[in-house]
């Protein structure tokens, strides 16, 4: 069981740290379907025409000014569309026939998302193409020691096509994301806010080796919770384990099976043996 848990976490960390950021970066560089927005910085190259090589920021009104052809609409168009339009205008103006135009995004400014909560560098981030939530977490420095395993995505921001959407809240689990569950929900859209809440806690007290509070995890059994506390002392009565749980402002005391799932804020008590 320990080997399985270790392997799962190792794979998760490997994906988080190395593979996903590379995959997302590659996708951003290769895609000509990216829709240009205001304040994006474009590098425009016309093959064989060094004097037309420009690095240009898209104005707030969505336009750029390019030599020979003047002002041209950039915002709301794909890279491919803008490349073709510049080539066409150069040809129509009889400045350059059959121009080969190449555009790269030097800096993305129009696709923004926010990450808050238990990450090392919370704040606003620019999405570089199709961005996986793990890539965004990596860019934010990773999660803190106090972070839980839940990822909350608030979707329906004020950015571009998102403006017409209603607010939509998704709750995802990091371990399930790493295992490939619901992959479409794991990608961040412009205007999204990602929140990483603090881990919820539960408590183990009584006849165990290490009493105290512990990070709650999804599907955590009583047996595993006790193991996290170092196990039962020789003086403990495992068969009389009880849980104190607050529900509807009342404290409920139960004697659980060891397979029962622990809830946040549960207090697990191992009483002393009679003998």
Tally of separate helices: 5
What is the helix/strand order?
HEEEEHEEEEHEEHEEEEHEEE
Radius of gyration: 27 Å
Q: Provide the helix percentage.
A: 10-25%
- Lateral arrangement of strands in the main beta sheet: 7-6-12-9-10
Total beta-strand segments: 17
Strand content: 25-35%
CATH homologous superfamily (4th level) name of the largest domain: Outer membrane lipoprotein wza domain like
The geometry reads as: rod-shaped
* CATH architecture term of the largest domain: Roll
Number of discrete domains:
3
What fold name stands as the CATH topology of the largest domain?
A: Outer membrane lipoprotein wza fold like
Structural class: alpha+beta
What does the average pLDDT come to? Answer: 85
